[in-house]
Fold these 2 entries.
Entry 1:
Amino acid sequence: YVRGSPAPKITKFTMGDTKSKFPYQALLISQEEAQIRHNALEAARVASNRVLMTRLGNSYLLRVVPYPHTILRENKMIFGAHADRLQDGMRKAFGKPVGTAARVKPNQTIIEIGVNENALEVAKEALERGQDKLPIPCRIVIGKAPD
């Protein structure tokens, strides 16, 4: 049982024009199972959104799909002179909450972007920028949006 958890850094999961329907979508899909920290998800969202906003204005829809539920803990260790008086090693090593992470499975969508046909290259570039911020290999899939 973990008492309290830090709030995730990522606060907005949906950005852009939420009212419109877009005929095409670009997906950033994970290739491995991993835990992605909340600050990496936020960095990917900011990087992708910046490209979309400067090039397309407000004619896109960006969604970050996974939510960081997993609480990360750290058993802080102090090194240096007389550190042995302040720590107990692995006794009571449950740790204090330091952040949150999202568990991602292979072939799971991380970011999805809805755009019109003329903006597909911009969406692809935005996902490439977001992919650079994530700790796992991903692939980009572009296709028609499901109705």
Entry 2:
Amino acid sequence: MSDERPFGIPLSDDVLARRARLPAKPDPVTLEGKRVRLRPLDLEHDVAPLHAVSNGEPATLGERRVGAYDADAEIWRYMPAGPFVDAAGLGGYLRGLAETPNLLPLCVEDVATGQPVGVVTFMSNYPEHLKIELGNIWYTPLVQGTGANREATYLMLEHAFGLGYRRVEWKCDALNARSRHTAERMGFTFEGIQQAHLIVKGRNRDTAWFRILDDEWPAVEARLRAMMSGRGVDPA
């Protein structure tokens, strides 16, 4: 099979010029959907409510309710930190994200109630190569399986490709079957396993790599729109 992107293929002046327009620290942005709103993380106001819906204690969101749950198993097991016994611990972790030079954390907010329900980030941003990653993604069990993640991912992809990125990545622990299944279900292409990639929480992490390229985005966008309209596969 021929290589559609052979080594050394020249890029147009327009593509190359995009690199100068994109900052290393992604610009703050608010992305509005029907279910969720993504907005810049406010450490002063968001940490306490985010901790309340991610610490394993019973929680409510409108008419939705979850009882006590295993916060490690449901949220934090494959994340670089957590669970957090108190809001200060979560705040320290989130502050570290906010201070990373090429990362933008966004609070995921339930549109109907205005309540914070999770965090996502644009990370590993390399404008010089026109690539960026969606990562550090977590949601309270209150919205897992409701379509919140699917819509948030769509909004982030739409924004990234609209800015001119050529490649959007999704990486996860190779053992994280839920994340791998979600990535493939939403249209990311699996590229392989990078072995001994990281040490996380004192343990080896092999990393599964996924991506969407700019010329693949129209088809993926149509797939996600179909899913959000109820004509696609199960919610994420």
